Amino acid sequence: MNSRRDYRSARAALFDGIEEGGIRASSYSSHEIDEHENDQAIEGLQDRVNVLKRLTGDIHEEVESHNRVLDRMGNDMDTSRGILFGTMDRFKMVFETKSSRRMATLVASFLALFLLIYYLTK
Protein backbone atom coordinates (compact mmCIF):
# COMPACT_ATOMS: atom_id res chain seq x y z
CA MET A 1 0.00 0.00 0.00
CA ASN A 2 2.91 2.30 0.71
CA SER A 3 4.23 1.73 -2.74
CA ARG A 4 0.93 2.85 -4.22
CA ARG A 5 0.97 6.02 -2.14
CA ASP A 6 4.56 6.68 -3.12
CA TYR A 7 3.63 6.07 -6.75
CA ARG A 8 0.62 8.41 -6.47
CA SER A 9 2.55 11.08 -4.65
CA ALA A 10 5.39 10.84 -7.15
CA ARG A 11 2.93 10.95 -9.99
CA ALA A 12 1.08 13.88 -8.40
CA ALA A 13 4.35 15.71 -7.93
CA LEU A 14 5.24 15.03 -11.55
CA PHE A 15 1.88 16.23 -12.88
CA ASP A 16 1.70 19.15 -10.47
CA GLY A 17 4.81 20.59 -12.07
CA ILE A 18 3.37 20.13 -15.54
CA GLU A 19 0.05 21.60 -14.52
CA GLU A 20 1.75 24.58 -12.97
CA GLY A 21 3.78 25.00 -16.12
CA GLY A 22 0.59 24.65 -18.11
CA ILE A 23 -1.05 27.30 -16.01
CA ARG A 24 1.95 29.53 -16.41
CA ALA A 25 2.02 28.88 -20.13
CA SER A 26 -1.68 29.59 -20.50
CA SER A 27 -1.38 32.74 -18.43
CA TYR A 28 1.62 33.75 -20.50
CA SER A 29 -0.25 33.19 -23.73
CA SER A 30 -3.21 35.02 -22.23
CA HIS A 31 -0.84 37.88 -21.47
CA GLU A 32 0.43 37.75 -25.05
CA ILE A 33 -3.13 37.77 -26.32
CA ASP A 34 -3.93 40.79 -24.13
CA GLU A 35 -0.80 42.57 -25.43
CA HIS A 36 -1.79 41.78 -29.01
CA GLU A 37 -5.35 43.03 -28.44
CA ASN A 38 -3.98 46.19 -26.83
CA ASP A 39 -1.65 46.74 -29.78
CA GLN A 40 -4.56 46.33 -32.17
CA ALA A 41 -6.67 48.71 -30.12
CA ILE A 42 -3.85 51.27 -30.11
CA GLU A 43 -3.48 50.95 -33.89
CA GLY A 44 -7.23 51.41 -34.27
CA LEU A 45 -7.13 54.50 -32.08
CA GLN A 46 -4.19 55.88 -34.05
CA ASP A 47 -6.13 55.38 -37.27
CA ARG A 48 -9.13 57.17 -35.78
CA VAL A 49 -6.94 60.02 -34.54
CA ASN A 50 -5.42 60.36 -38.01
CA VAL A 51 -8.87 60.41 -39.60
CA LEU A 52 -10.05 63.05 -37.12
CA LYS A 53 -6.91 65.09 -37.73
CA ARG A 54 -7.51 65.04 -41.49
CA LEU A 55 -11.18 65.85 -40.92
CA THR A 56 -10.39 68.85 -38.71
CA GLY A 57 -7.88 70.03 -41.31
CA ASP A 58 -10.56 69.79 -44.00
CA ILE A 59 -13.03 71.64 -41.77
CA HIS A 60 -10.43 74.37 -41.17
CA GLU A 61 -9.86 74.77 -44.93
CA GLU A 62 -13.61 74.90 -45.52
CA VAL A 63 -14.07 77.57 -42.83
CA GLU A 64 -11.24 79.63 -44.31
CA SER A 65 -12.82 79.33 -47.75
CA HIS A 66 -16.21 80.44 -46.42
CA ASN A 67 -14.59 83.36 -44.59
CA ARG A 68 -12.97 84.51 -47.84
CA VAL A 69 -16.32 84.27 -49.65
CA LEU A 70 -18.03 86.24 -46.88
CA ASP A 71 -15.31 88.92 -46.97
CA ARG A 72 -15.73 89.29 -50.74
CA MET A 73 -19.49 89.43 -50.35
CA GLY A 74 -19.14 92.12 -47.66
CA ASN A 75 -16.86 94.15 -49.94
CA ASP A 76 -19.35 93.76 -52.81
CA MET A 77 -22.16 94.92 -50.53
CA ASP A 78 -20.16 97.99 -49.54
CA THR A 79 -19.55 98.76 -53.22
CA SER A 80 -23.25 98.29 -53.99
CA ARG A 81 -24.17 100.56 -51.09
CA GLY A 82 -21.90 103.28 -52.50
CA ILE A 83 -23.44 102.94 -55.96
CA LEU A 84 -26.95 103.04 -54.47
CA PHE A 85 -26.19 106.22 -52.52
CA GLY A 86 -24.85 107.80 -55.72
CA THR A 87 -28.03 106.84 -57.56
CA MET A 88 -30.18 108.26 -54.78
CA ASP A 89 -28.27 111.53 -54.96
CA ARG A 90 -28.93 111.69 -58.71
CA PHE A 91 -32.63 111.05 -58.15
CA LYS A 92 -32.72 113.88 -55.63
CA MET A 93 -31.22 116.22 -58.22
CA VAL A 94 -33.77 115.05 -60.82
CA PHE A 95 -36.71 115.75 -58.50
CA GLU A 96 -35.51 119.27 -57.71
CA THR A 97 -36.71 120.69 -61.03
CA LYS A 98 -40.29 120.53 -62.33
CA SER A 99 -39.41 119.27 -65.82
CA SER A 100 -37.31 116.57 -64.25
CA ARG A 101 -40.31 115.52 -62.17
CA ARG A 102 -42.26 114.77 -65.36
CA MET A 103 -39.33 112.76 -66.66
CA ALA A 104 -39.08 110.88 -63.36
CA THR A 105 -42.82 110.18 -63.44
CA LEU A 106 -42.49 108.86 -66.99
CA VAL A 107 -39.53 106.64 -66.02
CA ALA A 108 -41.35 105.37 -62.93
CA SER A 109 -44.44 104.60 -65.05
CA PHE A 110 -42.38 102.62 -67.56
CA LEU A 111 -40.63 100.81 -64.75
CA ALA A 112 -43.97 99.93 -63.09
CA LEU A 113 -45.37 98.76 -66.43
CA PHE A 114 -42.27 96.64 -67.08
CA LEU A 115 -42.48 95.03 -63.64
CA LEU A 116 -46.19 94.33 -64.09
CA ILE A 117 -45.62 92.63 -67.45
CA TYR A 118 -42.67 90.71 -66.02
CA TYR A 119 -44.71 89.31 -63.12
CA LEU A 120 -47.68 88.47 -65.33
CA THR A 121 -45.52 86.49 -67.77
CA LYS A 122 -43.67 84.71 -64.99
Short précis:
InterPro entries: BET1_SNARE, T_SNARE_dom. The chain is mainly alpha-helical.
Name the descriptors.
single chain, about 120 residues, mainly alpha, about 0% strand, rod-shaped, transmembrane helix, protein transport
Number of helices: 2
Report the span from N to C terminus: 115 Å
Radius of gyration, whole Å: 45 Å
- Please state the average pLDDT score: 78
Poorly predicted segments? 17-26
Coarse morphology: rod-shaped
Percent of residues in helical segments?
Answer: over 70%
SSE ordering: HH
Helix/sheet category = mainly alpha
| Beta fraction | under 5%
Number of strands: 0
Major beta-sheet overview: none
Organism: Cocos nucifera
Family: Belongs to the BET1 family.
Main location: endoplasmic reticulum
InterPro entries: BET1_SNARE, T_SNARE_dom
Description:
This is Bet1-like SNARE 1-1. Belongs to the BET1 family. One of its GO terms (cellular component) is endoplasmic reticulum membrane. The chain has about 120 residues and is mainly alpha-helical. Helices cover about 100% and strands about 0% of the residues. The chain is built from two helices and no strands. Helix 1 crosses helix 2 (about 100-120). About 0% of the residues are buried.
